[in-house]
Amino acid sequence: MQFYFVRGYLTALTGGPIADALYDFNLILNDLDDNHRSIFTLLAYTGSGVAYSRNGEHTKGEFFFQKVLDHLHDLPLKDNKSIWRALNMLFYTAEYFAHVGDYKTSDPLLDYGYEICANNHVTYYVARICFRQAENAKAQAPNSQQFRAILTMPRRLRRLTITNCCLSGFLILTNSPLET
Fold first, then answer.
1. How many domains does the chain divide into?
2. What are 71-103's pLDDT values in tens digits?
3. CA separation for the pair 45, 152 (Å, rounded)
4. Contact 12, 49 (CB under 8 A)
5. Domain containing residue 1
6. Same domain for 56 and 79?
7. What mean pLDDT is reported for the chain?
């Protein structure tokens, strides 16, 4: 199942043929995990949502992301593999809802993801989550206090021992240099 999950994600995320990505996810959902009892079912739902949304088919994408959304808070976070898989699903689900302008769904997911990262010392996703939070805040109210508070995130990131990997993204959002 892991092979089909990875291949499907690579196809979906690199702009490959949607039919190829969905074929891999359907193998998981309809053949390899037809009872839908493993984490790969939720990963396949996430991948299907990514494939459809990146293909501009947002209604179909939302169908799959909604299935993931219903289970995100119930995922066991028992080891590194389960944490990374949960963060993957959480991030892409939050990203999808942000792209369709549903910030009331996206923002709490990002907050939950940040909490998981902070509690488990995961720095890769925290940078992506913080950047997505800044994008969401700017889209909702670029001059708001919330957006300005999020711009202090490079300080938060530094405390988590992240280098300046996403500072350039913050600079792009603000069109100005940041005090670090």
1. 2
2. 988 888 989 899 999 999 999 999 999 999 999
3. 34
4. no
5. 1-70
6. no
7. 83
Question: Which residues does the chain have with pLDDT short of 50?
Answer: 158-180
What gap in Å lies between CA 150 and CA 168, rounded to an integer? Answer: 14
Name the token pair of 115. 């909490």
State which amino acid sits at residue 8: G
**Length of the chain counted residue by residue:** 180
- Closest alpha carbon to 142 in 102, 178, 167, 173: 173
Same-domain pairing of 35 and 99:
no
Spatial CA neighbour of 173 closest among 124, 126, 139: 139
Q: What is the dihedral of CA 173, 9, 94, 133, to 10 degrees?
A: -20
Whether 171 and 96 map to the same domain: the answer is yes
pTM over 0.85: no
Note whether 46 and 89 are same-domain residues. no
pLDDT in the model for residue 134: 80
